[in-house]
Amino acid sequence: MATLPYAEYPIGEGAVRPDHSLRHNIADKSLSPLRLAGFASIAVPIAGAGLPLAIFVPQLYASEFGLSLAAIGLIFFIGRFWDVAADPIVGALSDRTRSRFGRRRPWIAAGGLLFGLSSALLFFPPATLVTPAYLAAVLFLFYLGWSMVEIPSSAWAGELTAHYHGRTRVVAWQMLLRSIGLLAVLVLPTILDQVDPGNGTLKLQLVGGFILVTLLPSLILTLSSVPEPAQPASPPVRQSFARAAALVFSDRLLLRVLASDTVVTAGQSIRAGLIVFFAVWYMGLPAWASGLYLLQFIFGVAAAPVWQRIGTRIGKREAAITGELAQAGINIALLFVFPGALPLLIALTIAQGVTQGSGNLMLRAMVADVSDAHRLHTGHDRTGLFFSVFALSAKLGPAIGVGIALPLVAWAGFKAGPGNSPEALEALKYVFALGPALAHILATLIIWRFPLNEAAHAEIRRALHQRDAIPA
To answer: How far is CA 23 from CA 197, 238, 301, 455, in A?
Structure first.
């Protein structure tokens, strides 16, 4: 099995049947729902920081502290490059870490403290110290702390169980807690707008307070809820980072999963970037602009356990394909929404929420399986580096989606304000509907014949088990 090229992993009816006795042995019965919820709880403050960072921070630092938009834009632009660079560095270093506390725990603990400190400085800035240099330094620490928590915890999640469907279950809990964090930062500012509209400073502090209040208990729960798996018997990889990165980016299975998730995220970003414009200017429903997004998120949270069950029953690849095709159909149905058709729009928004996490969940769960195949093929465990590379899709997808959608609707004559022609509004609807639909179809084609199914993974785990049992 170790010599099989990735393209020759068995698929379809000719697949080797998984050894169910092995599957039973590697399933970790100690991963109760309560333990998994505790382990995944760090996703609440981490996910809760993302949306305010994009929406509230630039606006407040410009309006309240007088920083120029050009300076803020440049700082965030450079900061995003640092964020992208920090992920694989942290992933590779955590793979190589050896300590009595484990490989992932020291990074998460140190990263959590750094993330908390930088969040306090970012969301509660002392007015007399705020300068472009202050914002740049705080963002540097913020992104570093974020990577030190996010990447090792994702790798740890992939190592919690070697069971094919068990990994889907672990990722489902992470996605559920991540959705709860996002939901909270959507609800809290919405409530504040009803009580004290226009108070940007209080809104920023409210979000920052939520992050700080949830960070410490979630950090303790993540570090203590589940045992970290035994460190690999093989010595840490001593290759250069550039050589390890080159090997990872030459892994065809990982690249397919990464490409599919990037396209999925780009499609979701097109929808998120245009939904306010569509609700306000096409539908003429400004009161529903935030409500539609919130409604989609609520049903997305509720659907995570459902998709975990679907993935367990039919397989990750099949569940991802099913979810992506469903989302494509839902977005195409938006072409039949016209001003006044609010009930249909609400129904499609709910359906979008129910299906939106399917592809992301299954693709993330596939990364640990791909890492197993890589370890069998190369002899090196690079789980942390694999998850750091996969995290690029969450950063590339929005950049691609927004970078395509906004210029496209602008080229068609749409502008964010009154006075748009009927043709410009129709163009907005077509991009809003067909952009995500095409993205979900493309993501389906990329993952359509993904060879690493349950049967192939069972063979990989059996080969790894036999090889690991042989003394070096």
So the answer is: 55, 32, 29, 10
Backbone phi, psi, residue 315, to 5°: 105, 155
The angle, 0 to 180 degrees and rounded to 10, between the axes of the packed helices 43-63 and 200-224 is 160
Structure tokens at 389: 């590379």
Q: Please state the domain extents for the chain.
A: 24-229, 240-472
What CATH number has the domain spanning 24-229? 1.20.1250.20
Radius of gyration of the chain measured on its C-alpha atoms: 23
Compute how many other C-beta atoms are within 10 angstroms of the C-beta atom of residue 247. 17
Secondary structure element (H or E) that encloses residue 120, with its range? helix 105-123
CA 63 from chain center: how many Å?
30
Q: Is the pTM of this model over 0.90?
A: no
Cβ neighbours, 10 Å, residue 449: 11
| Same fold across 24-229 and 240-472 | yes
For the chain of 472 residues, list the mean pLDDT of each consecutive stretch of 10. Answer: 41 38 45 86 87 71 78 78 82 82 90 94 88 92 92 85 79 82 77 66 83 93 85 57 70 90 88 82 80 79 82 89 95 94 92 83 86 84 78 76 80 84 93 95 94 88 80 48
The structure tokens listed for 335 are 């072409």
Angle ∠(359,46,154) on CA atoms, nearest 5:
55
Give Cβ neighbours of residue 156 (< 8 Å, ≥ 6 apart).
104, 108, 228
Please spell the DSSP secondary structure of 268-282, one letter per residue.
HHHHHHHHHHIIIII
Which has the closest alpha carbon to 462: 393, 392, 372? 372
Is residue 10 within 8 A of residue 194, CB to CB? The reply is no
Which of 273, 277, 301 lies closest to 289, judged by CA? Answer: 277
Residues 6+ apart with CB under 8 A from 300: 179, 353, 354, 356, 357
Q: What is the largest CA-CA distance in the chain?
A: 75
Q: Tell me the C-alpha distance between 43 and 219, whole Å.
A: 9
Which CATH code fits 240-472? 1.20.1250.20
Whether 332 and 382 have beta carbons less than 8 Å apart is answered as: no
Contact between 423 and 413 (Cβ < 8 Å): yes
Question: Residue 386 and residue 364: Cα distance in Å, rounded?
Answer: 11
**The two three-digit tokens of residue 249, written as one number:** 């980016």
Question: Residues 6-40: pLDDT tens digits?
Answer: 444 433 333 333 444 343 333 455 678 888 888 98
